[in-house]
Amino acid sequence: MSNLVKQSIKIPSNISVEIEKNSLLIKGPLGQKTIILLIKVLIDNIKKEIVITDILNSEFLGNRKLNDKALQGSTFALIKQHFLGVSIGFRKQLNIVGVGYRAFIENNSNILTLKLGYSHPVLITIPNNLKIVCLKPTVISIFGIDKQKVNEMAAKIKSHKIPEPYKGKGIIYQDEKIIRKEGKLS
Predict the structure, then answer these.
(1) Among 15, 25, 119, 125, which lies 20 to 30 A Cα-Cα from 98?
(2) What's the rounded Cα separation, in Å, for the pair 11 and 25?
């Protein structure tokens, strides 16, 4: 982490960056994101890069004392993550496993309907900043520019039917592997 002061972040050609008081505004083809800065950041427009300094942003912090090396690493990672978000976005895919389990979005609505073996369908409202598509009745794809929001929505959907260890029925992430237990032996 201590070497991040010497490093700089290259600004991609399709992204514009602006500093406003204590925040960094990043605009890209998919949208814009704002990062509140706890550490000073410099933009070099000639070289098209961002340099993270080791100077804390005292007007924003007040009397709090923070580790500036940790803040440098966090700021570095957040800026790179937002560059990815506004340029290509983040995607999470969920698979529904179970007989009769399915998901669908009704015509032009922002409600995801899940049929998961309960006596009633589970209705989930889709936020405006996310896009959810049912590729098949058993495959849900979530897309957005904020990685945290995409993962929160995926976890919220998964929490309605956590996979059980005997038959593996439930909602799982695409790359998740369920460790199966052996049933009763007679």
Answers:
(1) 125
(2) 13
